[in-house]
Structure formats: C-alpha cells, structure tokens
Amino acid sequence: EIVLTQSPGTLSLSPGERATLSCRASQTVGSNYLAWYQQTPGQAPRLLVFGASTRATGIPDRFSGSGSGTDFTLTISRLEPEDFAVYYCQQFGSAPFTFGPGTKVDIK
Amino acid sequence: EVQLVESGGGLVHPGGSLRLSCAVSGFTVTNNYMSWVRQAPGKGLEWVSLIYSVGSPHYTDSVKGRFTISRDNTKNTLYLQMNSLRAEDTAIYYCALYDWGLPHWGQGALVTVSS
C-alpha cells in the first residue's frame, strides 16, 4: 500500500499570498495518477487537479499541480478568501487508492 | 456529464446492517475501478473498499469480513453491504469512479451508527 504524507499539516497565510503544499508518496505513483482535492466545512471534496498537473473543469488557473514519481506539489499562486480550506492528495496508480492526511490552509 | 448519486444511508443500531447504492449516469461503467471512501466527523478521507471488473476487491483492514463491495454493470450501479456496524463506522460515505486518470465523486451518504 502506498502511504502519502502531506506537509505542512497546517499553513497559516494571508489573502494574496502564495501557498505551496507538498504530497510525498512511499513508492512511485503509477502513471502519475495523483489528484488534489479541496474541502470546505460541510461540503464534499472538490477535485482540483488530476494526473498530477491537469486542472479539473472550472478550476481557476491560480491552482497548479506539479511533480512526478514520489514528490508532488499543489501551488495556489494568490490566495483568495474562498481558498482557505483543507487540501488532500490521493493516488490511484496502484490499489488501494490511498489518501494523504490533509493540509489545512487557514487565515493568518 | 458524469453523475454519481449515493443512497441507502441512515441511522442504524450497533450490530445492524445497511446497504449503500451508487447510481452512475452519463458514463458506462465497464472496465473501471470504483470505490467507497468515507469521512468520519472531523476526520480526513479514508478509502474503504475498491473493486475492478475482474479480480478480488480490496478492503481497508477495519471493515474486512463485515463489508462487501459489489457492482452491477448492467445497472451502472455500485453497492456496499455493511454488516455488524459499529459506532466508529459513522461517517459520510462517498462513491467514486475512476475514468483511468480522472476521478468522479458523488455527494455522499450519511451513515450514523448509534443506539
């Protein structure tokens, strides 16, 4: 089973600042099948990025994903008020399809 | 547009059973992975079970022997039979479909296990 580690656990930033979130896998993620999700309280997870770097439909271009193999990054170029949320990575390159523990981005 | 709609959630006593369903529209489910993911109150996302069109399904350790995942491709529907439910199974259960590199999720079904 691939274990995903996300860092930092919490990121305290101000609106307009840049956020850099990390997701590290214990083994190579096959086919770069790595996704990033955003979750706000009371809502279902929202797909942001799949295939490590492809933005999902309707996702603003301030969100970008990068990386390959075992190291992946989600960058939010300029934080908007609605971006303060919890972010999860998930790999589905090999079964079972595991999640990271999440990074909370909160307002400084 | 691909849509997944879960149903069958509710309140159940410890030791009881529930069957979740996930109906898929806008996509023909054949050779795709499908899974159940849950989120307990205040916790992160946890994969529960995974099934492909062939081969053995996968289960997280805490549900092995109690939960059974199945699919009916003719009805484009995924199921999760949950037996011997425990308080710690209380969560929102999401179904997911993996169109190779692109995942699609439902909005979730709440399962509450309480006496």
Explain this structure to me?
The complex is a heterodimer of chains A (108) and B (115). Chain A is an all-beta fold. In chain A, 0% of the residues lie in helices and 47% in strands. Chain A is built from no helices and 10 strands. Chain A has strands at residues 4-7, 10-13, 19-25, 34-39, 46-50, 54-55, 63-68, 71-76, 86-91, 103-107. Chain A has a 6-stranded mixed sheet, with no helix packed on it. Chain A has a 4-stranded antiparallel sheet with strand order 1-3-8-7, with no helix packed on it. In chain A, β7 and β8 (71-76) form a beta hairpin. The model of chain A has no long low-confidence stretch (mean pLDDT 96). In chain B, a hairpin with a 4-residue loop joins β7 and β8 (77-82). With 115 residues, chain B is mostly beta strands. In chain B, the strands form 2 sheets. In chain B, strands 2, 4, 5, 6, 9, 10 and 11 form a 7-stranded mixed sheet that branches. Chain B has a 4-stranded antiparallel sheet with strand order 1-3-8-7, with no helix packed on it. The interface between A and B is medium-sized, with 22 and 22 residues.
Shape of chain A: globular
Largest sheet of chain B: 7 strands, mixed
Return Rg of chain B in Å.
Answer: 13 Å
What distance separates the N and C termini of chain A?
Answer: 36 Å
> Looking at the structure, what is the overall shape of chain B?
globular
Work out the strand percent of chain B. over 45%
What value does the average pLDDT of chain B take? 94
Low-confidence stretches of chain B: none
Biggest interface reads: A-B, 22 and 22 residues
- Low-pLDDT segments, ≥5 res of chain A: none
Summarize this entry quickly.
The complex is a heterodimer of chains A (108) and B (115). Chain A is 0% helix and 47% strand.
Give the SSE layout.
The complex is a heterodimer of chains A (108) and B (115).
Chain A: E1 4-7, E2 10-13, E3 19-25, E4 34-39, E5 46-50, E6 54-55, E7 63-68, E8 71-76, E9 86-91, E10 103-107
Parallel strand pairs in A: 2-10
Antiparallel strand pairs in A: 1-3, 3-8, 4-5, 4-9, 5-6, 7-8, 9-10
Chain B: E1 3-7, E2 10-12, E3 18-25, E4 33-39, E5 46-51, E6 58-59, E7 67-72, E8 77-82, E9 91-99, E10 102-105, E11 109-113
Parallel strand pairs in B: 2-11
Antiparallel strand pairs in B: 1-3, 3-8, 4-5, 4-9, 5-6, 7-8, 9-10, 9-11
